[in-house]
Design goal:
single chain, alpha/beta, binds zinc ion, about 10% strand, Rossmann fold, 5-stranded parallel beta sheet
Length: about 230
């Protein structure tokens, strides 16, 4: 009999959430894992295709849920076509928020994920947020996640537990973890670029961070190999 608890992974189709999906399959056993993907009106609809492809490759049940309020609020480069994503990763001294910050996104995602999980008898929720190497997003910090976990437990009267396996990892360590848990083939179909480009643009802050991580880990990015290597889909 299967004794491990069930887990729900918030899968965006990006590098970190894809790594977390395979981490969860190792920790909880693949049959106990499912994924939720939010359609929040992101400009780059390719993210949703990537998440579907990755869930299919992993053999994991995936549910897509709509949240259209972020696009209505606007004011950020990920949901508003009139705003161009900032280029180049920021240095630590810069404390302003980049225009790719979608205010409240992780709070809402995790609250909906916890609500969805509670209807399915799932206590464990996995998210790929990290406070190291992050772009200055306050809702990726551990203190935010701990406070939210407490609020979810109280508000849902549940034992909701938020797992953040990447929280204190550098991007290079995240690449090493992806190798350990067998996520590399799926990472060839992940999507990170803020400009929605395939092959990735290589210039935006998100591409820069991703490339730096693979470089430091001494590993070729399977997405770059797939999309620039002339391989047919
Ligand atoms: Zn890019």
């Amino acid at each position: 009999m299967n004794k491990l608890p069930k887990a729900l992974v918030v899968l965006s189709g990006g590098q970190d959430s894809t790594t977390c999906l395979f981490w969860a399959m190792r920790e909880f056993g693949a049959p106990n894992v499912e994924a939720v993907t939010f359609d929040y009106g992101q400009r780059h609809r390719i993210e949703l295709d990537c998440a579907r492809t990755i869930a299919r490759m992993a053999g994991i049940r995936q549910t897509e849920l709509p949240i259209d309020t972020f696009a209505a609020i606007g004011g950020n480069a990920l949901t508003d076509n009139s705003i161009t994503p900032e280029e180049n990763a920021r240095d630590d001294a810069d404390t302003t928020l980049p225009n790719t910050f979608v205010p409240g996104r992780n709070l809402i995602f995790l609250t909906f994920a916890a609500a969805f999980a509670s209807t399915r008898g799932i206590d464990h929720i996995v998210t790929g947020v990290a406070q190291t190497d992050y772009s200055g997003y306050p809702d990726c910090r551990e203190n935010t996640l701990k406070a939210l976990e407490l609020a979810l437990r109280l508000g849902l009267d549940s034992r909701a537990t938020l797992h953040t396996p990447l929280m204190f990892m550098s991007k290079a360590e995240t690449v090493q973890l992806a190798q350990e848990v067998g996520a590399m083939p799926a990472l060839a179909y992940s999507h990170t670029c803020y400009n929605g480009a395939v092959p990735p643009c290589g210039r935006c802050a998100s591409c820069e961070l991703r490339a730096k991580g693979f470089l430091e880990a001494g590993v070729d990015d399977p997405l770059v190999v797939r999309t620039q290597g002339g391989e047919h889909e």
